[in-house]
Design a protein that fits this description.
Layout: H1 2-10, H2 32-35, H3 48-53, H4 60-71, H5 82-86, H6 93-97, H7 104-118, H8 123-134, H9 140-155, H10 158-165, H11 173-180, H12 189-192, E1 198-199, E2 207-211, H13 216-220, H14 222-234, E3 237-240, H15 250-254, H16 258-271, E4 278-280, H17 283-290, H18 292-295, H19 300-310, E5 313-315, H20 316-322, E6 334-338, H21 342-345, H22 352-359, E7 364-366, H23 382-385, H24 387-398, E8 407-410, H25 413-425, E9 431-434, H26 435-446
Parallel strand pairs: 2-3, 2-4, 4-5, 6-7, 6-8, 8-9
Antiparallel strand pairs: 1-3
């Protein structure tokens, strides 16, 4: 009776089994995800949290053991599990290292969904989570208002006053540091192209594509969305800004709110149903879109739709590489290094394509970054919810960033903010750029435009 009531209350699809050990809510974890783990320890060196703590409960195999124990009825869904399960960065490096390809990240997300139902947030944390994850991110008009407020803060002089007078000291240190590296807010492309949502290709049209504008991406990094549109159009693509798209749901699923994640997934699946290519320039979003089928394991109708949708999703760097992008002719003459965003390298297996794009630009000197696929500590909003661990992971990452480069390139906005914070805290001068921006600058310079890097 309890499981039936839970399913009805949450709107989750009914599961084939009502419970699994002490997992008692709808949308049960998949036992096959832990079945192949033999606790060999090959994952240990890949795990950022195990590197920092040396504790088994903060290692991939330790977490798998805990999650499996709940499924076998040996442990209960109690607050004691919150720390090991939610301290995971979900970076997926352990799956890359695992000889059996155990999907620890997918299992973590499923168990977080169970834990958040068994041990829900309360008080201030619940208010903040509901306000942003349910009240802001899924609603484009509210995101626009947030963008306008940030733009007013930056342009009106309030930001300068707040920084010079020390008003930011009332904020927690990690939030004040994040404020210091916020990019300049522009006009969302979703709003800019609302009346003319089709951007024609330059020259012959080879194909028509749609882009995921994103939520935070379009507010905080609209310049990267603009660059993405220009680069796609330059390479023979008509670009469509689909009007009814919404947040990808990654932040919600990472936080254990799988029900909201499913609602957003359904909206995106329907919004993009008439296009053949969904191009994404944010690694975390792209990984989430490709994993929509996981959200509908127990719903055959939507699982099939999600499979069809996921097949359309492509990261912009891989799409350009695979469709034969035009190599720029103008030189940029910069020295740069490349950081592998976790959900691009580990989540989607995309490593060489972004590097090939960068290496194609005349004058670009690539300097290899040791452990380039090591997590930077961003992990969505992990640097806000777990600031101490995020900072420790970032410190480890910065030890591997070459000193002699001018630019650090990557393919994920969260990483860009986190790496910008690392550069600032270490007193460096390197500029953080998205991979597609470099290609865009080279094309613009080729057309005779004044490009300042």
């Amino acid at each position: 009776m309890m499981n039936a009531m839970t399913s009805e209350r949450t709107g989750s699809p009914a599961c084939a089994t009502a419970s699994l050990g002490n997992y008692r809510f709808a949308d049960l974890p998949d036992p096959s995800k832990w079945a192949d783990c033999v606790h060999c320890g090959m994952c240990l060196e890949s795990c950022p949290t195990y590197e920092q703590t040396g504790q088994e409960q903060h290692s991939p195999r330790g977490r798998v053991h805990l999650m499996k124990s709940v499924g076998e009825g040996k442990l209960d869904l109690t607050p004691d599990l919150l720390d090991p399960i939610f301290t995971c960065l979900d970076c997926r490096a352990c799956t890359t290292a695992c000889p059996a390809d155990v999907d620890v990240g997918g299992l973590i997300e499923q168990v977080r969904g169970q834990l958040r139902q068994a041990v829900p947030l309360t008080g201030w944390k619940a208010f903040v989570s509901d306000f942003f994850l349910k009240g802001v991110f899924p609603h484009p008009s509210r995101l626009d208002w947030l963008g306008r407020l940030l733009k007013l803060y930056q342009k009106s002089g309030l930001q300068t006053v707040a920084r010079k007078t020390g008003l930011l000291r009332v904020m927690p240190d990690h939030l004040a540091e994040m404020e210091a590296v916020l990019p300049e807010v522009g006009t969302p492309v979703r709003k800019k192209y609302k009346r003319a949502p089709l951007i024609k290709a330059k020259g012959e049209t080879k194909r028509t594509v749609a882009i995921l504008t994103g939520c935070v991406m379009d507010v905080m990094f609209s310049d990267i969305n603009e660059a993405t549109i220009r680069v796609l159009a330059r390479n023979g693509n008509d670009v469509v800004i689909v009007p009814n798209q919404t947040c990808c749901g990654a932040l919600h699923v990472h936080a254990g709110d799988r029900e909201t994640g499913r609602k957003l997934a359904k909206q995106n699946i329907e919004a993009f149903q008439h296009v053949d290519h969904v191009i994404v320039n944010a690694a975390g979003c792209g990984c989430m879109l490709k994993e929509y089928p996981e959200l509908f394991r127990d719903d055959p109708e939507w699982h099939e739709k999600a499979e069809q949708f996921a097949a359309k999703v492509e990261d912009v760097s891989k799409f350009l590489h695979d469709t034969g992008f035009e190599r720029p002719r103008a030189e940029l003459n910069v020295r740069l290094t490349y950081h592998d965003a976790c959900h691009l390298a580990h989540g989607q297996g995309i490593r060489q394509e972004p590097r090939a794009l960068l290496e194609s630009i005349p004058g670009v000197e690539m300097v290899a970054m040791p452990n380039a696929d090591r997590c930077c500590g961003s992990a969505g909003i992990y640097n806000i919810t777990h600031p101490e661990m995020a900072q420790a992971v970032l410190e480890s990452k910065m030890q591997h960033v070459p000193q002699e480069v001018e630019l650090i390139s990557m393919g994920n906005p969260g990483c860009m903010l986190q790496m910008a914070l690392g550069v600032m805290k270490h007193g460096r001068t390197q500029k953080i750029v998205h991979t597609v921006q470099l290609l865009d600058w080279a094309y613009q310079k080729e057309e005779g435009k004044d490009v300042r890097i």
